[in-house]
Amino acid sequence: ELAGLERIDSPKPYYGSRYTDSTRNYLAKAVDEFWYYDLGDLGYTFSAYPAGGGRSSRKTVFSPSAMGAKQQYYAFMGGDYPYCRIDREAAGGRRIAVVKDSYANAFIPWLIPHFEQIHVIDPRHYEGSLQSLVRDEGITDLLFMDYALVLGIPPYAEAIRGILQ
Predict the structure, then answer these.
(1) What is the DSSP letter of 85?
(2) Across-strand partners of 97?
(3) Does the pLDDT at position 10 exceed 90?
(4) Which residues does 84 contact at the CB level (< 8 Å), separation at least 6?
(5) CA 39: distance to chain centroid?
(6) How far apart are CA 22 and CA 28, in angstroms?
(7) Within 10 A of 59 (CB to CB), how many other CB atoms are there?
(8) Could you tell me if 123 and 99 are in contact, meaning their C-beta atoms sit under 8 angstroms apart?
(9) Neighbours of 73 (CB within 10 A)
(10) Which of 133, 150, 50 is nearest to 97 (CA)?
(11) 133 Cβ contact list (under 8 Å, min separation 6)
(12) Could you tell me the pTM of the whole model?
């Protein structure tokens, strides 16, 4: 229930990712609110595996410092990584793999109470095989969550094909 959660508001107006990449000043009139709910201590670890190797882990999927940055959307999961994994202490047996673009970053935190493990794949950068991940990690659920028109973008569709092999 949302009533028991703390709402974290951005200290700056949010114009959207497309505005920050544009020179169209009229888009500044379409200010949006940007906020998220702190889900509290759900007993999980978020690990991000950036391109080029390495791993960073923390106890939250949120990056509050990004709330005032140019790309405020990085407040969700710290941005787009090829692969992220969320491990929750509470057992339940369900494990989900989410194949996504950046639009899914704001949704993924809501999966945490329902899964023991969440594997997050950004096909634009992931170099592994989805089939291998599903088999090796015992994935029970699979979710593709993308911007509605993204599959019409040839490089993205090719990236999806690439991880399916």
Answers:
(1) E
(2) 119, 142
(3) no
(4) 46, 47, 48, 49, 77, 118, 119, 120
(5) 15
(6) 10
(7) 10
(8) yes
(9) 20
(10) 133
(11) 97, 119, 121, 139
(12) 0.85
Query: How does strand 117-121 pair with strand 95-100?
Result: parallel
3-state secondary structure of 119: strand
The Cα 111–Cα 13 span in angstroms is 27
At 29-52, the pLDDT tens digits run 777 788 888 888 888 999 999 999
Which of 96, 83, 16 has its CA nearest to residue 56?
A: 83
CA 78 to chain centre: 8
Task: State mean pLDDT over 90-102.
Answer: 89
Return d(Cα 83, Cα 10) in angstroms, integer: 26
Residue labelled with tokens 């405020």: 72
**What pLDDT, on a 0 to 100 scale, did the predictor assign at position 20?**
66
Local confidence band at 128 (pLDDT 50, 70, 90 cut-offs): very high
Four-residue CA torsion sign, 35, 42, 79, 145 = negative
Question: 65 with 101: CB under 8 angstroms?
Answer: no
Q: CA end-to-end span of the chain, whole Å? A: 40
pLDDT of residue 30: 75
